[in-house]
Design brief:
By secondary structure, the protein is an alpha/beta fold. The chain is built from 9 helices and 8 strands. The protein has an 8-stranded parallel beta sheet with strand order 7-6-5-4-3-2-1-8. The chain is globular, with a radius of gyration of 17 Å. The model has no long low-confidence stretch (mean pLDDT 96). The structure holds pyridoxal-5'-phosphate.
Length: 226
């Protein structure tokens, strides 16, 4: 069990295992603001949340220079609440959601960075774009007209398994798919560069498979109490 006093040491342990160029999103969902504050005081500035109301409360309680990532499934009707301040929306899995983010970002005169969520894991989760969905979304081209969203890369979760080879295969497939999308649609856009994969149990494998962002919660803040 981690406690508040372990947060700084846990944070530094995770950071110590990340190669240069890999950024850490400290996933603080379900943990109180004081845990975020402890990580902040230890130098961390990027945090990930997955529920809009919880995020709004924390934003109000915490310093302005935090970079907030929305990492969970986002319902279209919730976009307007986070649009004023969110720095990155990591799990975009439909054109409809992309359009709504664009609309709300425009209303606030902002450009919001997003990642497309790729579904490669074998589990039958409801969320994410299959590689074919993703190809279709980009081939369709409407995204090019959405000037208040910027697609910065891809996000994925590997299967929740102890089989490290399977996890490695899935992340490697994600990395190869990133290269395909990069050369097909973003060859001229240096800021299409993010590969967000790796959580507490698999971020070490993820960084070997070219992750640029890892999203780590439990290993820093301890188990979540739902
Ligand atoms: C909760 C969550 C994480 C963090 O998971 P841990 O196992 O606690 O590190 C990462 N990514 C997403 C999308 C999540 O929902």
């Amino acid at each position: 069990m981690s406690t508040l006093s372990d947060v700084a040491a846990n944070l530094h342990e995770v950071l110590g295992g990340l190669p240069d160029g890999v950024r850490l999103v400290a996933v603080s969902k379900f943990h109180p603001a004081e845990y975020i504050r402890a990580a902040y005081d230890a130098g961390q500035r990027v945090f990930g949340e997955s529920r809009e109301q919880e995020l709004a409360q924390k934003v109000n309680q915490l310093p302005d220079d935090i970079e907030w990532h929305f990492i969970g499934h986002l319902q279209t009707n919730k976009v307007k609440y986070i649009a004023p301040y969110i720095d990155m929306i990591e799990a975009v899995d439909s054109l409809k959601l992309l359009r709504e983010i664009n609309k709300q970002a425009a209303a606030h005169d902002r450009v919001i960075n997003v990642l497309l969520e790729l579904h490669i894991a074998q589990e039958a989760t409801k969320y994410g774009l299959t590689p074919d969905d993703c190809r279709q979304l980009l081939a369709d081209g409407e995204w090019r007209t959405l000037h208040n969203v910027h697609i910065s890369g891809l996000m994925m979760m590997a299967s929740n398994t102890d089989d490290e080879e399977q996890i490695r295969r899935e992340f490697s497939e994600g990395a190869a798919f990133f290269d395909e999308m990069k050369s097909s649609y973003f060859a001229d856009d240096a800021s299409f560069c993010e590969r967000s994969w790796g959580m507490s149990h698999d971020y070490r494998i993820a960084v070997e498979c070219r992750s640029t962002i890892v999203r780590v919660g439990t290993a820093i803040f301890g188990p979540r109490v739902y």
